[in-house]
Amino acid sequence: xxxxxxxxxxxxxxxxxxxxxxxxxxxxxxxxxxxxxxxxxxxxxxxxxxxxxxxxxxxxxxxxxxxxxxxxxxxxxxxxxxxxxxxxxxxxxxxxxxxxxxxxxxxxxxxxxxxxxxxxxxxxxxxxxxxxxxxxxxxxxxxxxxxxxxxxxxxxxxxxxxxxxxxxxxxxxxxxxxxxxxxxxxxxxxxxxxxxxxxxxxxxxxxxxxxxxxxxxxxxxxxxxxxxxxxxxxxxxxxxxxxxxxxxxxxxxxxxxxxxxxxxxxxxxxxxxxxxxxxxxxxxxxxxx
Length: 289
Fold this sequence. Notes:
By secondary structure, the chain is α+β, with helices and mostly antiparallel strands. The chain has helices at 14-24, 37-42, 78-82, 85-90, 92-98, 104-109, 112-118, 124-131, 149-152, 227-231, 241-254, 265-288; strands at 7-9, 28-31, 50-53, 63-66, 69-73, 135-140, 143-148, 153-155, 158-159, 166-173, 179-186, 196-205, 208-217.
């Protein structure tokens, strides 16, 4: 199939791009990496009157570090995040997750902001952003607003981003050396969408877990922190098997899995439980080392 007829603009400045988004609002699409948008256009799932290409807008692909944390531009390519020494040092969870994102060719074009804006329930980056407590910075002609990742994802393919806004950057907090991070997923083949994936972070002091962050991808319609599961680890040692048993029980009681027909909900929950135990053990070994 071919897309419907649309107008095309490639503004050179952010203000020009935002003016176009404001003018067309609900009848506009933003082209950044295009790895999801172009197939949607060809299949006529998306039928915008205006396509705004932001690839010539300066400053949307910068990775910056300061005392507060790390800022990653919305148009930053997946492979640039994967290969960034600053990200590997300060946000190792993202580096781990990026190795699971699609394939090399797609990572060369796909962008951080595009992945977050699409909010595919099986994508790795939304879960990582929730786990890391990132803030999505959305810009419009009215200015910028910061949206907590936990408030950004509303449902499957649905976010708090308004039609006239674009993600300009994502701000991640700084983590002290007591934090440990792990990401893994189960998929039919490497690069396929995950049946289940897990972003996990634990902070330990003297061997005791004092903070925990857990967010799944591919299991529920949107990523979220699982506070009841996190609480099973806090106050105990990571290498205690009992906390993993409690956490897996809490996980089964907490999850509301997707019923896609391809994978039964019970199977997704089982895979999620296996990932939970696997990554908890991995972080326990890292912490003891």
